[in-house]
C-alpha cells in the first residue's frame, strides 16, 4: 500500500510521503509546486508557469523546461513512475496541470476548513478553532521563493486569507475574553504586515485586554512612525480609535510601574514662602501649568527648592515620581539627551527595553501616552534649554514637571517660570538659626557680617554653617573674622562670586593635605559623579584611604546622594579645578588621568568577562592600579549602567590622549551591555568611535567591524552588518587568523538565519566549522554546528536538526562548556515544541534549567523559565505560566535587570 502524500504551502513549500520528507529539487521546481498548492487542486496553465519562472523574459525553451520540471516532480511524488506516464498525483488537463488533493493532504485546505468552522461558531470554541487554523502557518505563503521583494498574486491572496482569519480570530477572542489564545498568531501577523492598520488596531486592543497596555502604547508609537515615514500619512480612524480606547481605559497603576525617585528633602530647608505661595496659586487656577521651571544663578538653591517643592506636592500625584539630572551645565559638557532621559523613564514605568522605540519622537509619544492617564510628578534638574525638556513634558493629563535651570526657559508650551533671587536678610538669618541654633540670636552683628560675606547665597551660608557646626569652640565673631581674611578665586563666574570664593577658600584651608589634594584632582574625572573606586584610582589611593578622605570632604564640600556615588556642586568643581591648575604640576595631573583611564579599562574588561565570558577580548596592559572586581553578571551589568556616560566619554577622549587601546577596548567591552539593554544606537555610536581610534591596529579594526555588525543586526540593518563582516573577514584572512575568520562566518550565518536564507546560513556555518577544526577549536566548531541545526529546524527539517542538537550537546559536555550545553538543550526543547512533542520539549527545558543553575548562570536560567512560561501562556495555561515566571524572578534574586522587569510585567499584567 502506497504511503499518503501530504503538502505544505503555509510557509516554506514542503512535501512528505508518510513520515519521510521529499526532496523537491530546484527553486524552479519548488515554485511550480507552490503555485499548484496555492491553487489547492485548481488548474494552472503552462503559460502561467512560464510567467512565474521568467516573468517578462522567458527563454525559447521555456515551455519544454516547464514540462521537464513537472516530470521530475511527478517522479518525486511517485517513485518508479515511467517517464511519459502522468501518474495519479500531478495530472495534466489539456494545456494545464493540477494536483489531486483532499482536505487532509494540504495545510491550506485544513486551514480553510478550520477557519470556516470557527466563523460559523462562537465563544471560546470558535477562538480555539481559529488558534488551530492559524497554528498551521509557519511563515508567508511559499516563503523563501520570492525574489526582489515581489510575490505572485496567488501567494498574496493566500496570505490575505491568513490576515483575514487573524482579524476575525482577534475579534472573537476579544468578545470571549481569551485574547491570550490568539495573541501569538496576532503578533506574528502584525509583524509581517506592519502597515496593515486593521491588524495593528486589533493588536493594540488584544495587548491591552491581556494587561499589556504599555506594550500596546509602544506598538502604536511604532506604527504611527512607520506610517509617517514610509507612507507619509497619519493613522486612520480604526487605529486611532484603538489608541483612544487604551487611553480611556482606567486601570490601577501597578507597584512595578509606580516609581518613587525623589531625592530626600533637605532637613534644614527654609524661606522661599513667596514662591511656594505662588505655586499654590498657579496649581489652584483654571489654567494649570504643565511644568514649573525654577531658574536662578548657580548656588541660589534651585535644586534644594525643587526637591522640597516636589515633596510638598507628592501626595497630589499618587502614581509616583520620576527624577533625572539632565546635566545641562555639566563641566564635562556631557548633557543628558532627551532620548536617554526618556529611555530611563520608560524603564521605570514598566516598559521592557525591547519595547522602547528607537526614535526620539516615538519614545516621547509613548511616554506621553502612558502619562496621559496618570497623575505623576517629574523632577528634572539642571535643564540646559527648552529643547532639552520639550520631549519630557507630559502634554495633556494631570501630571506635573518641576524643572531647574540657570537660564530663563521660554517658548515651551505649558511651562511657567519661577525665579529664585538671593535670600532676604531674614531668610538668611532663619537658615543659620535652623542650622546653628540659639547662638545666632546671641550675636546679631557677627551674623550680619557672615550674611554679607556669604552674599545671601544659600550654598555659601550652608558651607559656613556646616563648618561652624564641626568646630564647636569657634565663635561667630571668629567665623566672621576668618571669612574676612580668606582668599579664593572664581573670577570666571563674574563679580557676583568674589565673596563666594572666600567662603570656599575658608573651607578648603581647613582640609588635611590628603583631602585637599583629592579635592583638586576630582574635577579631572569626566563624569558628573563618581564612585569610591574611581576616586581611589584618580588619587592613587587604596579604597580605604579614599573612603576616609571622601568622608572628610563630604562634611563640607561634596554631596553623596544616597546611591553610593559622590558629586560636587558646579561652583565648587570650578574652584577645585582652578586650585589644581595652580598647585599641581601637569605631570601629576596627567598621571591621575592615566590611573583613572587604567581603572575604567580594567574594570570594563572584568565586567565583560561576566556579561559574556565566552567571547574573548584582548586583555588590557598591566597597570599600577587595580580594576573593579565583580561577583556576578548582575553586578557587572549594574556597574556598566552606572558608569555608561563615563565610559562613553573616555572612549571619545582616550584616542586624543594617545590611548587608542583604551578607546577600542572599552568600546568592545560595552557591546554586550548595550545588547542586553537594547541600546543599539548607542552601541553603534561607541563602536564607531572606537573604530576611528584604532589607527594601524588591524586586529582591533577587524574586531570593531565585527562589533558594528552586531549593532547593525539589532538595528535591522542586515546589509550594513554584512558589509562590516566582509571587512572584518578580509582583514582576518590577510592576517591568517582562522579562528577569527570562523567567528565572522558564524556571524554571517546568524544574519542569514535572520533573513530566512537558511541554505546560505548552513553554508557559512559550515565554513566556520572547517576553519575552527583546522585550528583545533572544538568550541567554535560546535557553535557552528548549533547554527546549522537551527537552520535545519527553521526549514522544518526537524529530524536532522534534533540529531545535530544532540551531537552539539555531547560536544559541549565534553568541553565542559555548560553555557553551550544549556543553550543547546533549550534549542532542543524549542524544536520539540515546534512538532508538538510536548514531553520531550518540557524535558529539554528542565535539562536546560538544571544546566544553567549548575553553572550559576541565573540570568540564562531565568530566560529558559520565561520561555517555559510563555509556552504555557500561549497554550492557554495561565497558572503554569505564572508559576514558571515566578520561578524565573526568584532566580534573579530581586535584581532590576531588563529580564526581571519583563517578568514582573508579565506577572502583573496576567
Helix-strand layout with pairing:
Layout: E1 5-8, E2 14-17, E3 20-21, H1 27-38, E4 44-45, H2 46-54, H3 62-77, E5 90-93, E6 96-99, H4 107-120, H5 123-135, H6 153-176, H7 183-192, H8 197-209, H9 213-231, H10 237-248, H11 273-284, E7 291-295, H12 302-313, E8 321-325, H13 338-348, H14 360-371, E9 377-381, H15 386-390, E10 400-405, E11 415-419, H16 425-436, H17 439-442, H18 444-453, H19 458-469, H20 476-485, H21 498-509, H22 513-521, E12 529-530, H23 532-539, H24 543-554, E13 566-567, H25 570-583, H26 586-611, H27 633-654, H28 660-669, H29 671-676, H30 680-693, H31 698-715, H32 718-735, H33 738-754, H34 758-774, H35 778-794, H36 798-815, H37 818-834, H38 838-854, H39 858-874, H40 878-891, H41 898-909
Parallel strand pairs: 7-10, 7-11, 8-9, 9-10
Antiparallel strand pairs: 1-2, 2-3, 4-6, 5-6, 12-13
Helix pairs in contact: 1-3, 2-3, 4-5, 4-6, 5-6, 6-7, 6-8, 7-8, 8-9, 8-10, 9-14, 13-14, 16-19, 18-20, 19-21, 22-24, 22-25, 23-24, 23-26, 26-27, 26-28, 27-28, 27-30, 28-30, 28-31, 30-31, 31-32, 32-33, 33-34, 33-35, 34-35, 35-36, 35-37, 36-37, 37-38, 38-39, 39-40, 40-41
Amino acid at each position: 500500500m502506497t504511503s499518503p502524500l501530504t503538502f505544505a504551502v503555509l510557509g516554506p513549500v514542503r512535501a512528505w510521503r508518510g513520515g519521510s520528507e521529499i526532496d523537491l529539487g530546484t527553486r524552479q521546481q519548488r515554485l511550480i509546486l507552490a503555485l499548484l498548492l496555492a491553487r489547492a487542486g485548481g488548474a494552472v496553465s503552462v503559460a502561467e508557469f512560464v510567467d512565474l519562472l521568467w516573468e517578462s523574459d522567458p527563454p525559447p525553451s521555456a515551455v519544454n523546461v516547464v514540462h521537464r520540471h513537472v516530470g521530475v516532480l511527478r517522479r518525486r511524488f511517485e517513485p518508479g513512475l515511467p517517464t511519459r506516464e502522468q501518474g495519479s498525483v500531478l495530472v495534466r488537463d489539456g494545456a494545464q496541470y493540477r494536483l489531486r488533493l483532499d482536505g487532509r493532504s494540504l495545510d491550506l485546505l485544513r486551514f480553510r476548513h478550520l477557519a470556516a468552522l470557527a466563523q460559523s461558531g462562537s465563544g471560546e470554541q470558535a477562538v480555539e478553532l481559529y488558534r488551530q487554523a492559524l497554528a498551521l502557518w509557519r511563515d508567508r505563503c511559499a516563503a523563501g521563493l520570492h525574489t526582489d521583494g515581489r510575490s505572485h498574486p496567488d501567494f498574496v491572496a493566500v496570505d490575505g486569507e491568513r490576515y483575514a482569519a487573524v482579524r476575525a480570530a482577534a475579534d472573537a477572542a476579544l468578545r470571549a475574553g481569551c485574547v491570550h489564545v490568539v495573541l501569538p498568531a496576532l503578533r506574528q501577523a502584525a509583524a509581517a504586515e506592519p502597515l496593515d492598520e486593521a491588524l495593528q488596531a486589533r493588536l493594540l486592543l488584544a495587548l491591552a485586554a491581556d494587561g499589556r497596555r504599555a506594550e500596546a502604547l509602544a506598538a502604536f508609537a511604532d506604527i504611527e512612525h512607520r506610517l509617517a515615514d514610509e507612507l507619509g500619512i497619519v493613522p486612520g480612524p480604526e487605529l486611532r480609535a484603538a489608541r483612544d480606547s487604551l487611553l480611556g481605559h482606567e486601570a490601577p497603576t501597578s507597584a512595578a510601574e509606580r516609581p518613587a525617585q525623589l531625592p530626600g528633602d533637605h532637613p534644614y530647608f527654609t524661606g522661599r514662602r513667596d514662591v511656594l505661595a505662588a505655586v499654590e496659586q498657579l496649581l489652584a487656577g483654571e489654567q494649570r501649568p504643565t511644568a514649573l521651571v525654577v531658574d536662578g544663578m548657580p548656588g541660589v538653591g534651585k535644586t534644594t527648592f525643587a526637591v522640597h517643592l516636589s515633596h510638598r506636592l507628592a501626595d497630589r500625584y499618587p502614581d509616583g515620581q520620576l527624577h533625572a539630572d539632565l546635566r545641562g551645565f555639566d563641566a564635562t559638557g556631557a548633557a543628558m539627551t532627551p532620548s536617554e532621559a526618556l529611555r530611563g523613564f520608560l524603564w521605570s514605568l514598566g516598559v521592557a527595553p525591547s519595547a522602547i522605540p528607537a526614535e526620539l519622537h516615538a519614545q516621547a509619544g509613548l511616554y506621553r501616552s502612558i502619562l496621559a492617564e496618570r497623575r505623576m510628578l517629574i523632577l528634572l534638574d539642571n535643564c540646559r534649554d527648552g529643547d532639552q525638556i520639550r520631549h519630557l513634558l507630559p502634554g495633556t493629563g494631570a501630571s506635573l514637571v518641576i524643572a531647574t535651570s540657570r537660564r530663563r526657559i521660554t517658548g515651551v508650551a505649558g511651562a511657567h517660570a519661577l525665579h529664585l533671587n538671593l535670600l532676604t536678610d531674614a531668610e538668611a538669618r532663619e537658615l543659620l538659626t535652623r542650622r546653628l541654633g540659639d547662638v545666632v540670636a546671641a550675636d546679631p552683628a557677627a551674623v550680619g557680617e557672615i550674611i554679607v560675606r556669604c552674599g545671601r547665597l544659600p550654598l555659601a551660608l550652608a558651607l559656613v554653617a556646616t563648618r561652624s557646626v564641626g568646630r564647636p569652640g569657634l565663635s561667630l565673631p571668629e567665623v566672621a573674622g576668618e571669612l574676612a581674611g580668606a582668599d579664593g578665586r572664581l573670577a570666571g563666574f563674574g563679580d557676583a562670586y568674589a565673596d563666594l570664593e572666600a567662603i570656599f577658600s575658608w573651607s578648603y584651608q581647613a582640609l588635611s593635605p590628603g583631602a585637599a589634594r583629592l579635592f583638586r584632582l576630582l574635577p579631572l574625572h569626566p563624569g558628573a559623579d563618581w564612585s569610591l573606586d574611581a576616586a581611589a584610582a584618580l588619587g592613587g589611593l587604596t579604597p580605604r584611604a579614599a573612603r576616609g578622605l571622601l568622608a572628610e570632604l563630604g562634611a563640607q564640600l561634596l554631596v553623596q546622594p544616597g546611591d553610593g556615588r559622590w558629586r560636587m556642586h558646579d561652583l565648587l568643581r570650578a574652584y577645585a579645578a582652578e586650585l589644581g591648575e595652580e598647585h599641581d604640576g601637569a605631570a601629576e595631573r596627567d598621571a591621575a588621568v592615566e590611573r583613572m583611564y587604567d581603572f575604567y579599562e580594567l574594570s570594563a574588561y572584568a565586567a565583560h568577562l561576566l556579561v559574556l565570558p565566552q567571547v574573548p577580548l584582548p586583555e588590557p596592559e598591566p597597570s599600577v592600579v587595580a580594576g573593579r572586581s565583580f561577583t556576578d553578571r548582575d553586578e557587572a551589568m549594574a556597574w556598566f549602567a552606572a558608569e555608561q556616560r563615563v565610559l562613553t566619554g573616555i572612549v571619545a577622549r582616550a584616542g586624543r590622549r594617545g590611548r587608542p587601546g583604551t578607546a577600542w577596548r572599552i568600546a568592545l567591552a560595552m557591546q554586550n551591555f548595550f545588547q542586553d539593554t537594547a541600546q543599539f544606537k548607542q552601541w553603534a555610536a561607541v563602536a564607531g568611535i572606537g573604530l576611528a581610534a584604532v589607527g594601524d591596529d588591524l586586529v582591533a579594526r577587524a574586531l570593531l567591524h565585527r562589533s558594528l555588525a552586531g549593532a547593525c543586526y539589532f538595528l535591522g540593518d542586515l546589509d550594513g552588518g554584512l558589509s562590516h563582516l566582509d571587512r572584518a573577514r578580509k582583514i582576518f584572512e590577510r592576517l591568517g587568523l582562522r579562528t577569527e575568520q570562523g567567528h565572522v562566518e558564524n556571524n554571517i550565518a546568524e544574519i542569514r538565519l535572520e533573513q530566512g536564507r537558511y541554505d546560505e546560513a548552513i553554508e557559512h556555518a559550515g565554513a566556520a566549522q572547517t576553519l575552527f577544526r583546522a585550528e583545533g577549536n572544538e568550541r567554535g566548531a560546535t557553535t557552528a554546528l548549533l547554527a546549522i541545526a537551527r537552520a535545519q529546524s527553521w526549514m522544518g527539517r526537524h529530524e536532522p536538526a534534533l540529531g545535530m542538537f544532540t551531537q552539539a550537546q555531547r560536544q559541549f559536555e565534553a568541553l565542559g562548556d555548560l553555557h553551550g550545553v544549556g543553550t543547546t538543550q533549550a534549542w532542543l526543547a524549542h524544536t520539540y515544541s515546534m512538532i508538538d512533542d510536548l514531553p520531550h520539549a518540557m524535558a529539554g527545558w528542565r535539562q536546560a534549567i538544571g544546566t544553567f543553575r549548575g553553572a550559576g548562570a541565573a540570568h540564562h536560567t531565568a530566560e529558559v523559565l520565561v520561555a517555559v512560561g510563555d509556552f504555557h501562556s500561549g497554550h492557554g495555561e495561565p497558572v503554569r505560566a505564572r508559576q514558571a515566571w515566578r520561578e524565573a524572578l526568584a532566580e534573579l534574586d530581586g535584581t532590576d535587570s531588563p529580564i526581571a522587569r519583563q517578568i514582573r510585567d508579565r506577572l502583573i499584567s496576567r
